[in-house]
Here is the input.
Amino acid sequence: MDFSGKYTAFKREELMQEVQMHMSERRFQHVLGVEEMAVALAAKYGASKEKASIAALTHDYAKERPDEEFELIIKRDGYDQDLLNYGNAIWHGLVGASMVKRELGIEDEEILEAIRLHTTGAAKMSLLDKIIYVADYIEPGRNFPGVKEARKVALVDLDEAVAYETKHTLLHLIEQEQKIYPKTIETYNYWVVGKAEQSV
Here is the structure.
């Protein structure tokens, strides 16, 4: 896919190289898988394939940065200081979007928001937000119980896929006795509980 130049000055190959320099080969292969899935979902549900490609390629841009770098930015740039009580799993999306903006010059707010929300989701999500959230979960390299079912759901109903992923992510976090970021609970209450109540 050729980029139009509207959302990034980089050509696709150049953006891939920039991203690849900041992560392990294994992480980069995951990123390419998310891009493949995001572009397919964008084509199916009528979103911009170019925006889906850019957001997918950059969604984990900051994933392998040191904690100290995130902590510095959270303290310096006016983030909610409660964020310091969480870790990379939350930071690399929320804070990573500002690194993408600053270092890669990507300023499109829809793309940046999709990066911010790709691990936590939100009650209010754009079509692109949902696509990146789901694509990250079901990309071809993923292999965990339930992923095949999640892929099937994603090809039928994107909102149902958001609900499926949110429910199973929350169950996993609870099983692991991990701290749950409030936005993840907000996502669950809206997409899982709210949707179920609407259909009754």
